[in-house]
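Lecture 7 notes: from sequence to structure.

We start with a single chain of 529 residues. Read the sequence below before looking at the structure.
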Amino acid sequence: MRVAHLAKMLGQTVIDSYDITCRDCTGPGTGPVDGNAHRANMFSLTINQRNGQPLAAQIVAGVKRQIDERHLRPGTKLPSIRTFADAHHVSRFTVVEAYDRLVAMGYLQSRPGAGFYTTAAPTAPAGLEVATSDGHKRNEELVWLIRRLLEADDHKLHPGGPWLPNSWLDEARIRQSLNVLARKNGAHLLEYGHPFGYLPLREHLTLMLSTLGIPAHPGQILLTQGTSQALDLVIRYMLKPGDAVLVDDPGYYNLFGNLRLHGVIMLAVPRSRDGPDVGVLETLAAAHRPKVYFTQSVMQNPTGTDMSPHIAFKVLQAAERHGFVIVEDDIFSDLQAKTTPRLATLDQLNRVIYARSFSKTLSGSLRVGFLACAQSIAEELADIKVLTSITTSQFNERLVYMMLVDGHYRKYLSRLHERLGETRINVVRAFGRLGMEVFVEPTDGMFVWARFPHTDDSLALAEASQRDGIMLAPGTVFRPHLERSPWMRFNVAVCEDARVQRWLQQQVVPSNSTSRGADKIPSQYPPAR
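Now the structure, written as tokens:
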């Protein structure tokens, strides 16, 4: 992943002639400010690497204050990303994030090919993170990561990847079921499917949900093209540009990209070891009246953590009190060996919309998922599904149904749980021997959230790893507003590979590039116990 991609997408590669002084940004201006772009204006800004406040936030506060106090007049051109970063010894990524926030808050205007200019007045409430109209450009780094994962060849290793290796999946059983289905007479090879999806599969899903304590009938279940379409349908149904939602920080980057595309305001709720920070959630909900909270209660991506029962109750109480809906993404459900209650279990599909798929355990190619919710909502979502994609593949849904009902799937999952459990223990132990810090040792699933010692920003390390044929997943892409993070997501099914562990061993020895500033800025999370 290259920071240059993000730097180029806002057109700020022009070098300007500004002089920058490192004075206190809260102090007086350095002199009259002329809005003409050809004149060299000056503004004061101090960035303190030791005060614990994120660097991007310091830049935002400093520029905002000078605009509020009229030290920077409307139409003033700010330094380019490169000039600012070089002058203040920060990464371009940090400056991009700060400028992007100021654009979102209405303090700056981005002029493609020309740079950033101050505006006459803010157009959004101060302190509220909003998705800008150029959300597709802000998603360039996320799209780059996803495309690299999808286009990878056999020579690359993906210790940060989001799925199990092909060798772990039951390809032989898929081929067998495919041959049986292809020999059956019927229109399933030719016709469009039902708007809600294949009825026998929906009926079977009600049985599967009942094992989690989630009551549902087939009319409450809508089949989708994986969880991604399920979440997209909910976004289209419930949200419009400018609406606010709560999201986990860190959380699912593809969801964040989709929300950004739709112009939705994301309110970041820090994720701790036992679930979201309910205090922050309550404060944000009271201040901004979000419509939805997107979360994962079990095997959360990327941290691998589970939401504790007492936190789950508090989240549901907050949803009732503040009037928001909870969308529970349970895509990794079948990777859990010991079933625990979900939010949908406690709520009984009252305020919770439940999403799930079989992409992680059966096949990512089949793209079969579903939503479970109140029937009135399911009807509305089915209408949107018909308008946006006509229907889902009846053939794929029949194929998944065959594999679920013949009893083989349950035995396959049992073997998969055992293999994942052993591998997860081995990888966590290996990380410990390497001196890496693990956020929490997960009890299920494929992900471990960990960091290297002496590293406060994992993005540079992820960039460097590509030269060695290693694809890492830096923590910054899992944060709603792409802030810096020292953490990285690791897939245990890949990290047991000796080649990966040799590469990790080489990174443990701190270098000048990875250790600089490590002791100056505290990590996003407290040390693991």
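The CA atoms of residues 200 and 401 lie 7 Å apart. Keep this in mind for problem set 3.
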